[in-house]
Amino acid sequence: MKAALRMIYPPQCLGCSAAVEQDGALCPQCWRDCAFVSGCACRRCGVPLPGSGDGDAALGDASMICDDCLRVERPWRHGRAALIYSGVGRQLVMSLKHGDRPDLAGPLGGWLSVAAAPLVRPGMVVAPVPLHPRRLLKRKFNQAALLSAQAARVHGLMHRPTLLYRRRSTAAQDRRSLTERYENLKDALGVTPRHRHEIEGRSVLLIDDVMASGATMTAAAEALLEAGAATVSIAVLARAVKE
């Protein structure tokens, strides 16, 4: 049956729908245009850094911190990103987020799970950045929750998709200054009361689809730490970088 279905519906490239050998793969052209983060990367936010070396080892190297993370205090401990938010990587994120393509969460969540592997610790709780109920109703699903579910499954960790909630609706972050972005998210996120006991003294792996300034991750991490989490680490599918 599976072979017959493959003849009728052959595997297609995630980026351009060209024929590929297996499901969840990219064709050679899209693979070249998809900027995976490997080698040296900032141990706080996952942005690529000049040089070569083992990206995993950078978690213990205090010098592996980007200029932004030196200027802006990050409440989380470590961070990782799977892709750069450009080219095919950006296209895939947008398709998942706004193109009604939850089917992409499987392969993209797999990539994120690989990137997050160095952050995983026994007993960690995995949670996504939440959507406001009105936005969730419009979008039908929380793309960050689909990705976090995949990461929790791959690494055998507890998944709490409703650990965080939006206290209020916030305006879009686009076209805002750095200061305005942080002010827009200030006290916007909280920990759901019924889950507070589950994170007391435990580490949390916070998942989102894209990180730009880090304002959203900051608001989420601060809420988790205030609720008693021991540490917070972050992993995102794509990291926006400066030109």
Question: In words, what does this structure look like?
Answer:
- The structure is a single chain.
- The protein has ten helices and seven strands.
- Helix content is 35%, strand content 15%.
- It has a five-stranded parallel β-sheet. A two-stranded antiparallel ribbon has the order 4-5.
- It has a single domain, classed as 3-Layer(aba) Sandwich (Rossmann fold).
- The chain is globular, with a radius of gyration of 18 Å.
- Helix 5 crosses helix 7 (143-155) and helix 8 packs parallel to helix 10.
- It is α/β, with parallel strands linked by helices and 243 residues long.
Outline of the structure:
With 243 residues, this protein is an alpha/beta fold. Helix content is 35%, strand content 15%.
Oligomeric state? single chain
Percentage of residues in helical conformation: 25-40%
Q: Total domains, how many?
A: 1
- Poorly predicted residue ranges: 1-5
Given the C-alpha coordinates, what overall shape results?
globular
Mean pLDDT: 90
Distinct helical segment count: 10
The number of E-state strands comes to 7
First-residue to last-residue Cα separation: 48 Å
Portion in beta strands: 5-15%
Strand order of the largest sheet: 1-7-6-2-3
> Strand-and-helix sequence, N→C?
HHHEHHEHHEEHEHEHE
